[in-house]
Design a protein that fits this description.
- The protein is an alpha/beta fold and 299 residues long.
- It folds into two domains: 165 residues, no CATH class; 131 residues, no CATH class.
- Helix content is 52%, strand content 7%.
- It has 14 helices and four strands.
- It has a four-stranded mixed sheet with strand order 1-2-4-3.
- The longest helix has 24 residues.
- The chain is globular and about 60 Å long.
- It starts with a strand and ends in a 5-residue tail after the last helix.
- InterPro entries: DUF2268 (IPR018728).
Length: 299
């Protein structure tokens, strides 16, 4: 097993300093080693368009602002820290679950778009993905809070990669439940917290709602919803859902993360397991165990 953190910092500097007409092809070349993360898309993908849709750094403006942000990321050793965090986290995970299959990993770290208010305000300048086996994606704006959480963010996405890897939990887009994703976010945060503590390990978007009972009840009411088309609103909230044309359900940003953390914490307390030991825990078992403690009169 090898971990390859693509050295995208110099590539992004070249792109931002290149003539505008040359930037799209330079971006395609930078992203190409991680293009396998899009292998489940039904049609051929345009890597430049996906970069734009994912709030990646712009190709037609804000060059100096982006170059300064890249300097901040380089000064914080983002790429080195990601690699070391993944190595250390894998050692912890394999000690807990020695039979889990660990794929070769390719990690793409990208600067975000400072002109995208949704990215900066709603998602707090951080989006990431570890759902496709063998690939991790981190897109960030170097707010101090995000730089402090670089390791925890990478480890959170690693947890997803291993949970849905070969021979592990099966994610069927047609039948998977909201409960599975909510639990997976809670488990991934719990793993990051196991390694880095609560302050850094919680995904930032979920923190404001960790003790919101109305949010908890609303998300719990949707745990049985199946088919991932409508998951965005239940897990990420209405504002993010609106961005992608998904109907709202009445939830704030990060609601599913907050509820996932509460469910998983209750499950781990009840079973005495660590987050690493619970990597492949059945989401229905997690939910049932947690709700028997958190909402005993309603189960």
């Amino acid at each position: 097993m090898t971990i390859t953190v693509l050295d995208t910092c110099p590539a992004m500097r070249r792109i931002l300093r290149a003539p505008s007409a040359d930037r799209p092809e330079l971006l395609r070349a930078m992203v190409a080693p991680a293009a396998g993360m899009y292998r489940y898309f039904p049609d051929e993908v345009d890597l430049v368009e996906l970069h734009r849709m994912g709030s990646g750094f712009p190709l037609d403006r804000d060059e100096e602002r982006c170059l300064a942000a890249l300097d901040a990321m380089a000064d914080a050793d983002v790429w080195g820290r990601v690699g070391r965090a993944l190595e250390e986290a894998l050692a912890v995970q394999l000690a807990a679950t020695p039979d889990v299959v660990v794929p070769d990993l390719t990690v793409l770290v990208v600067l975000g778009d400072p002109g995208d208010e949704h990215f900066l305000r709603t998602t707090l300048g951080m989006t990431a993905n570890g759902s496709v086996t063998g690939y991790l994606y981190l897109n960030l704006w170097p707010f101090p809070e995000n730089l402090a959480r670089v390791e925890a963010t990478a480890v959170h996405e690693l947890h997803h990669n291993l949970r849905y890897g070969p021979g592990a939990v099966v994610w069927d887009p047609a039948t998977v439940t909201v409960g599975e994703q909510v639990v997976s976010e809670g488990l991934a945060d719990a793993f990051a917290r196991q390694l880095y503590g609560d302050e850094l390990g919680h995904a930032r978007i979920g923190v404001p709602h960790l003790r919101d009972e109305a949010v908890f009840d609303k998300v719990v009411s949707g745990l049985g919803v199946t088919g991932m088309r409508d998951f965005t609103a239940w897990v990420l909230g209405d504002e993010v859902a609106a961005r992608y044309g998904v109907p709202p359900v009445g939830l704030p940003t990060g609601a599913g993360y907050a509820v996932g953390n509460r469910l998983v914490d209750a499950y781990l307390a009840a079973t005495g397991r660590t987050a690493a030991e619970a990597l492949l825990a059945d989401s229905r078992e997690v939910v049932d165990t947690a709700l028997s403690l958190l909402r005993p009169a309603r189960t």
